[in-house]
Design goal:
Largest sheet: 8 strands, mixed
Strand order of the largest sheet: 3-2-1-4-5-6-7-8
CATH class of the largest domain: Alpha Beta
CATH superfamily of the largest domain: NAD(P)-binding Rossmann-like Domain
CATH topology of the largest domain: Rossmann fold
Number of domains: 2
Order of helices and strands: EHEHEHEHHEHEHEHEHHHHHHHH
Oligomer: single chain
Shape: globular
């Protein structure tokens, strides 16, 4: 297959290397021309994914139109908050026929757009009216690039309303160390992959405050309850949140040393301001922007999401982390499921 990867971050590189090993013809587009040139020369990103070599026959370029024109499948691996501008760029530079000829658009970004509160599938359908929902697929699950790129066994889920597309991606992307399951709940998988980053921020804050395993276990399980509550309201299948995209990815993101969002939470708990913490991150922590979006969604839909609300207050309203923890523990006593 001819596969175009939009983005050149750690996950984009990991997928590029994985798919090249499978024998696919892969090209990778990088927005920044200086970064594209650096990757062309070094065949490695020394900051985002050190030690992982990009094969010489992978085309790395700064021409998004050329990448789209040369591809059967497009992997959308740019950060969620730049997804719309990336799709606008494609709409401007590619013809209707070139866009329509793409067999599948695989979304691997995890986030909810700020202001519009749209999921990434919604963004693609709005900006590229030439494509239909049956050409969209979301690939998500516990899959840190640092481990996938080194062939450490990992599992993810491919979600699409088009079973044939899901099976095609499953068959062509799976390897001996990268196992893919299928799912038809594309909205649930998108929501799970987004909201888990907010809970991972809370887990990092917990670590930064010196709390224990009991605390993190509580945050993860009550975080799943929040994810399910939002999912039910937005038409997702509740079982999705018990699967790889939900609890699987949540556990990994909350406990892993590779987790950007957990690390971001630690920095915030140390007393740094949001801007100070962001300046120390070498890669995007999607959970920061997503916290704002999820909090706004919860208020709009009338859903109680106390962990999300607490993280929002800490990030954007300057609330003290220890006070936040105290207020969460002091909330009105309830039944476990409501």
């Amino acid at each position: 297959m001819r596969i175009g990867v939009l983005g050149a971050g750690s996950w984009a590189i990991a997928l590029t290397v994985l798919l090249h090993k499978r024998g696919h013809q892969v090209s990778m587009w990088e927005f920044n021309p200086q970064d594209a040139e650096m990757l062309q020369q070094k065949r490695e990103h020394p900051v985002k994914l050190p030690g992982i070599r990009i094969p010489d026959d992978v085309d790395i370029n700064n021409d998004i139109a050329a990448t789209v024109k040369a591809s059967e499948i497009i992997i959308c691996a740019v950060p969620s908050q730049t997804m719309r501008s990336t799709m606008k760029r494609i709409a401007q530079l590619c013809t209707d026929k070139e866009i329509s000829s793409i067999q599948g658009w695989v979304i691997v970004a995890k986030g909810i757009e700020t202001d519009t509160l749209k999921l990434m599938t919604d963004v693609l359908l709005e900006e590229l009216p030439q494509i239909t929902s049956d050409k969209l697929l979301v690939l998500s699950g516990p899959s840190h690039a640092e481990e996938v790129s080194r062939d450490i066994p990992s599992t993810v889920v491919a979600a699409s309303e088009n079973r044939e597309l899901a099976l095609k991606i499953q068959e062509n992307f799976s390897t001996d160390t990268f196992r893919i399951y299928t799912n038809n709940d594309i909205r649930g998988v998108e929501l799970a992959g987004s909201v888990k980053n907010v809970i991972a921020l809370a887990a990092g804050i917990s670590d930064g405050l010196g709390c224990g395993d009991n605390t993190k276990g509580a945050l993860m399980t009550r975080g799943i309850a929040e994810m399910m509550r939002l999912g039910r309201k937005m038409g997702a299948q509740e079982s999705t949140f018990s699967g790889l995209a939900g609890i699987g990815d949540l556990i990994t993101t909350c406990i892993s040393k590779h987790s950007r969002n957990r690390k971001m939470g630690e920095l915030i708990a140390s007393g740094l301001s949001l801007q100070e913490a962001l300046s120390k991150m070498t890669m995007v922590a999607e959970g920061v922007a997503t916290t704002r979006s999820v909090h706004q969604l919860a208020e709009k839909l009338g859903i109680e999401m106390p962990i999300t609300a607490a993280v929002y207050s800490l990030l954007f309203e300057g609330k003290d982390a220890r006070l936040m923890a105290k207020e969460l523990m002091g909330r009105e006593l309830k039944t476990e499921w409501y």
